[in-house]
């Protein structure tokens, strides 16, 4: 029962951010939910949700859907919609946006989305996990020769998906989404306001335009305006901070290797990383609970990796929010959120690209199906089908990662145990299998039992050492 | 600085529960070889002490040099560009070799003194927590706590706590049995056959196991809420749906 001591240490550590009682959108919240938004949104009690089959056929035109945001989620959604015969417009504000992002994609994404292999800058086949006391464990021994984690540049990936959507028939608009007007009546159109950026001119010379559509897919990321428009509620988010460095001869070491540093110095609830990119490495860290100290954590990450990135220069510093959990409301009327806008980022690893693209595709598939290839109007129940499908398919993955984060990122002793466990081959195999293929594959029960015993053993030992550490002062 | 050499041989017999002042002087045992290889020949003991003094509160003043000084060469700090402390005294310990503890140096009466290994590792982790160091590829840390045999852990950590908890359980049991007997007149043997009493025994055992400190009560409540928090966040989008056509997760 030594593991029970960890809640107390975690409790003291988390004193500044105690777990707030969960409030959805129903009860009057005392924290960050937006109470007024419920009044702005037409009361749902009066909306009648009818099955799509009885929805009226659209008079001589296909269904019009706007996808706001042209990242992986938006691009995948737009492509599937266009292929399904729906009239799609894709609004993206910055076509060459270099997203500050780890850029790691699993193998299944390459297969499922048919990504050409030259999109991938690097194939990471080795990962090094480094504990707070610098115990270093290499994982990746169990990877087969054709398995790797693909590192991409976001601007390349996003552009590719958008272009594919355009080829399928979607209309790509370079503009900044401003505002969404909800329909006056149940079947009315949504009106989108956006600033159209004219090619070749500065953003000052942009004209405000309006378009009416039947449904909206909000794929505009963590600070989603579409989400605000439908009163989705807030979520907790981590700040990830990245500084890119280019050490010259040290790049060889990072040729196929990524590193993960865990420890309180690097992040109290996440990890620090060194990920290889095309010609440089990204050194970064993230946190949810101690956002104000992110620079300190970043410095600590650089310190831990110092020997390996020595001589490099910082070429870019960037930060971005990572959602921690889905928004309380992901679908309202004929507006659905996908990707980061919906909050589909896993815990523990912070992976979001694959889930963004997958959710975009699933939402689009639900729209295509519900509208019978663009012939009928859809309604909320069609979009809820997408939610149900996504939740059912990926809930185990999210939950397992949440449990892992809760157990292993609690304290330094838990992190030590975590790194120790990673040395085990079975763990490595399970981890990579579930990451690369997004399937939680049940292994041999005897091995699972051994794993459970080893995990408990590691945690108990680490906690015992922790108790001793608390007794001494150096 | 000369303090340290006489203290070295006494290290292995020291127990962490002893006077804390003693431990301050035992600081510098930490990570040696990582920086030994890098800073060979850097006999900058004096510089080390000066910068150490200004950096740390004074706890570590005596800490500086052991045999060969492991210290960062100044230039690597500046090129970093990061807000790193000026000089970081590194972990130095003669028994820490090649990224792991050299068990041969822990022998006592011909057998490995596992308690000393545990103490050494505790000290190393504590040091690194207070002074994080760069991880080095030349001397990777490969120490795994599972090399310390299970019975050593049991003897040192489990048994004292088990004694404590069993003592508490026995005291509670005795007085509850007496209390129930005085109230109802049912003797101990008959109590054991009673369902209600058996339930009380179960609650008492669970309570003794789970609640060991006052803070544990709050911690347990938080833990229970934490386990379902994420699920609630995911199901929020379903909870506001009132039509029967969509099933809840």
TrEMBL record, chain B:
Residues 58-79 are annotated as: Disordered. It is a multi-pass membrane protein. This is Light-harvesting complex-like protein 3 isotype 1, chloroplastic. The keyword Transmembrane helix applies. Keywords: Membrane, Transmembrane, Transmembrane helix. It is found in: Membrane. Residues 58-78 have a biased composition (Basic and acidic residues). It comes from Cocos nucifera (Coconut palm). GO terms for cellular component: membrane. It comes from the Eukaryota. PANTHER family: UPF0041 BRAIN PROTEIN 44-RELATED. Signal peptide: none annotated.
């Amino acid at each position: 029962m030594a593991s029970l001591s960890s809640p107390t240490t975690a409790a003291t550590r988390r004193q500044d951010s105690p777990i707030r009682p969960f409030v959805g959108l129903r009860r009057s919240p005392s924290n960050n939910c937006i109470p007024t938004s419920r009044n702005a949104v037409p009361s749902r009690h009066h909306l009648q949700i009818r099955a799509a089959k009885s929805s009226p056929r659209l008079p001589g035109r296909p269904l019009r859907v706007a996808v706001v945001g042209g990242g992986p989620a938006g691009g995948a959604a737009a492509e599937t919609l266009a292929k399904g015969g729906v009239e799609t417009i894709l609004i993206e504000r910055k076509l060459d946006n270099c997203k500050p992002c780890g850029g790691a994609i699993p193998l299944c994404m390459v297969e499922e989305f048919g990504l050409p292999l030259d999109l991938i800058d690097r194939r990471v086949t080795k990962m090094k996990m480094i504990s707070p006391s610098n115990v270093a464990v290499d994982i990746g021994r169990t990877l087969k020769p054709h398995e790797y984690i693909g590192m991409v540049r976001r601007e390349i990936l996003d552009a590719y998906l958008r272009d594919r959507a355009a080829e399928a028939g979607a209309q790509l608009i370079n503009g900044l989404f401003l505002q969404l007007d909800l329909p006056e009546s149940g079947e009315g159109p949504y009106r989108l306001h956006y600033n159209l950026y004219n090619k070749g001119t500065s953003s000052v010379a942009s004209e405000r335009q309006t378009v009416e559509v039947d449904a909206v897919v909000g794929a505009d990321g963590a600070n989603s305006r579409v989400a605000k428009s439908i009163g989705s509620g807030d979520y907790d988010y981590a700040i990830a901070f990245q500084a890119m460095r280019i050490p010259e001869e040290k790049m060889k070491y990072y040729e196929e290797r990524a590193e993960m540093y865990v420890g309180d110095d690097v992040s109290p609830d996440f990890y620090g990383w060194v990920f290889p990119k095309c010609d440089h490495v990204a050194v970064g860290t993230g946190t949810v609970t101690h956002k104000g100290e992110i620079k300190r954590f970043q410095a600590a990450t650089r310190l831990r990796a110092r020997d390996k990135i020595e001589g490099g220069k910082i070429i870019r510093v960037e930060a971005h929010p990572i959602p921690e959990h889905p928004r309380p409301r992901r679908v309202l009327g004929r507006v659905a959120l996908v990707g980061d806008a919906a909050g589909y980022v896993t815990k523990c690893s912070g992976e979001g690209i694959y889930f963004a693209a997958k959710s975009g595709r699933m939402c689009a598939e639900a729209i295509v199906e519900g509208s019978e290839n663009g012939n009928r109007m859809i309604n909320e129940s069609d979009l809820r089908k997408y939610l149900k499908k996504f939740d059912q398919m990926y809930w185990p993955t999210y939950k397992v990662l949440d449990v892992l984060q809760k157990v292993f990122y609690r304290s330094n002793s838990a992190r030590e145990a975590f790194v120790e466990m990673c040395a085990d081959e079975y763990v490595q195999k399970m981890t990579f299998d579930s990451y690369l293929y997004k399937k939680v594959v049940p292994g041999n029960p005897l091995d699972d039992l051994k794993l459970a015993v080893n995990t408990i053993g590691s945690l108990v030992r680490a906690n015992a050492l922790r108790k001793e550490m608390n007794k001494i002062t150096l | 600085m000369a303090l340290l050499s006489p203290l070295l041989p006494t290290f292995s017999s020291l127990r962490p529960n002893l006077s804390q002042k003693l431990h301050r002087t035992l600081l510098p045992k930490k990570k040696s070889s990582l920086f030994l290889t890098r800073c060979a020949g850097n006999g900058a003991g004096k510089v080390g002490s000066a910068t150490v003094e200004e950096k740390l509160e004074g706890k570590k003043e005596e800490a500086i040099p052991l045999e060969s000084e492991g210290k960062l060469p100044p230039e690597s700090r500046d090129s970093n560009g990061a807000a790193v402390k000026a000089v970081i005294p590194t972990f130095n310990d003669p028994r820490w070799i090649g990224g792991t503890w050299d068990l041969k140096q822990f022998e006592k009466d011909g057998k490995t003194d596992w308690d000393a290994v545990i103490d050494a590792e505790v000290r190393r982790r504590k040091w690194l927590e207070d002074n994080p160091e760069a991880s080095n590829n030349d001397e990777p840390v490969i120490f795994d706590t599972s090399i310390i045999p299970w019975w050593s852990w049991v003897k040192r950590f489990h048994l004292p706590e088990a004694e404590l908890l069993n003592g508490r359980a026995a005291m509670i049991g005795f007085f509850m049995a007496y209390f129930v007997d005085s109230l109802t007149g049912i003797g101990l043997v008959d109590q054991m056959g009673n369902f209600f009493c058996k339930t009380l025994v179960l609650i008492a055992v669970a309570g003794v196991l789970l609640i060991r400190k006052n803070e544990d009560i709050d911690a347990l409540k938080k833990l229970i809420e934490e386990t379902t928090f994420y699920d609630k966040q995911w199901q929020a989008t379903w909870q506001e749906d009132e039509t029967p056509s969509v099933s809840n997760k």
